[in-house]
Design goal:
The complex is a heterodimer of chains A (192) and B (185). With 192 residues, chain A is mainly alpha-helical. Chain A has a single domain, classed as Up-down Bundle (AhpD-like). Chain A is 70% helix and 0% strand. Chain A is built from ten helices and no strands. In chain A, helix 3 runs antiparallel to helix 4 and helix 3 runs parallel beside helix 6. The two termini of chain A are 20 Å apart. The mean pLDDT of chain A is 95. Chain B has 185 residues and is mostly helical. Chain B has a domain of 127 residues: AhpD-like (Up-down Bundle), CATH 1.20.1290. Chain B starts with 12 loop residues before the first helix and ends in a 13-residue tail after the last helix. The model of chain B has no long low-confidence stretch (mean pLDDT 95). The chains are: A mainly alpha (192), B mainly alpha (185).
């Protein structure tokens, strides 16, 4: 049961964003750049980092939707997404991505846990400064989005089909465009 | 020593923002709306939430810079230390204490916020918007703190530098950099 008067028709972060569209704008702009903007990391790789961090933070909505978006980018490979969340060292992903997931896992706990050795390992496997920067920021940002979704006790449905469909849509259209549908329709829910 | 090739002489988050301006823009905008734009919580109160969360996360740069902003807004540097060491006995309103309790929980894990925490805040006068913003400020600082620490940015402890930063933040907010030129290392 949400802690504040959120729209009953919206789930997870959508409900929170519809309540406060002013902060929704930079929140969507940030995730758009990080996960869907130009990068030498593929969109699938970046969504895997997001779902991994969300899974470690045990935020069901975020782990589910970003897992679904990742799968949509990765040819529907839901088994791969599940493997990354359970034990990424055994997943069929590049060695570089595994090294970046180590960094992300540390940032998820505390940024100070990232060591020079972690970074060197990622560099040896080809990670660039921008890729390392973005890995740290994706992990940090998802520590925000996860706490936002949990902290307001938004509705986080257990509905694979919902996430799968939405995942395909976000993978195709991105975050800002998708957000227009729930921000516009629910403008009345912004109870100031 | 930063983990990537950040510009020298720029402290804390300003180095990250300089390195990657595209992500800096929405991060600045978010902080500006949450901490500086008009709200029923004063800027000083909102900066106190930011400082409190940053202190709990042990992120020196964020703790000291937002603490300096509090000192400017409230004209009283001692409040910051009192809130950080024991906010329940600090000279802030009962409503602020209830909101700080919520922020402290979000800083650990959003799922720790209980109906009872929220009810207490409401009884003491907190509105839905104030509760929303408290949760989002605490969540956002869980991001900014991890970003600053995770890149290994330079986090100095020079009080004078933070005093200057605090003056700029209190007056101008977050849309533009408070540190443009490298400062002495």
């Amino acid at each position: 049961m949400p802690h504040i008067a959120l729209s009953p028709d919206l789930q997870g972060i959508r409900a929170a964003m519809a309540f406060r569209p002013e902060t929704a704008r930079p929140l969507n702009a940030l995730v758009e750049i990080l996960l869907a903007g130009p990068s030498t990391l593929t969109k699938g790789e970046r969504e895997l980092i997001a779902t991994y961090v969300s899974s470690r933070n045990c935020t069901f909505f975020c782990a589910s939707i970003h897992g679904a978006i990742a799968a949509a980018h990765l040819g529907g490979d839901e088994a791969l997404v599940k493997q990354v969340k359970t034990d990424f060292t055994q997943a069929n992903i590049s060695a570089k991505l595994k090294a970046l997931l180590v960094v992300a896992g540390k940032v998820q706990q505390d940024g100070k846990l990232v060591t020079t050795a972690d970074i060197e390992a990622a560099r040896k496997l080809g990670a660039t400064d921008i890729e390392i920067h973005d890995t740290v920021l994706i992990a940090a940002a998802f520590c925000m989005y996860n706490r936002y979704v949990d902290g307001l006790d938004t509705f986080q449905p257990d509905d694979e089909a919902l996430y799968r469909e939405r995942g395909k849509r976000v993978a195709r259209d991105g975050y800002v465009t998708t957000s227009e549908e729930y921000l516009r329709e629910n403008a009345h829910a912004a109870a100031h | 020593m930063p983990h990537i090739d950040l510009p020298e002489g720029l402290p804390g988050i300003s180095a990250g923002f300089n390195f990657r301006p595209e992500t800096a823009k929405p991060m600045r905008e978010l902080a500006h709306i949450l901490l500086h734009e008009s709200s029923s919580l004063t800027p000083g109160e909102r900066e106190l939430i930011a400082t409190y969360v940053s202190s709990r996360n042990g992120t020196t740069f964020c703790d000291l810079s937002h603490g300096a902003a509090v000192a400017q807004h409230l004209g009283d540097p001692s409040i910051v230390e009192k809130v950080k060491s024991d906010f329940l006995s600090a000279p802030v309103s009962p409503k602020m204490k209830a909101l700080l309790a919520i922020a402290g929980k979000v800083q650990q894990d959003g799922k720790l916020v209980t109906e009872s925490d929220v009810l207490v805040a409401r009884v003491l006068g907190a509105t839905d918007l104030e509760i929303h913003d408290t949760v989002l400020i605490a969540a956002a600082f869980s991001m900014y703190n991890r970003y600053v620490d995770g890149l290994g940015t330079w986090q100095p402890t020079d009080p004078e530098m933070y005093t200057q930063m605090g003056k700029h933040l209190a007056a101008e907010g977050y849309s533009k950099p408070s540190i443009r030129q490298p400062v002495g290392t």
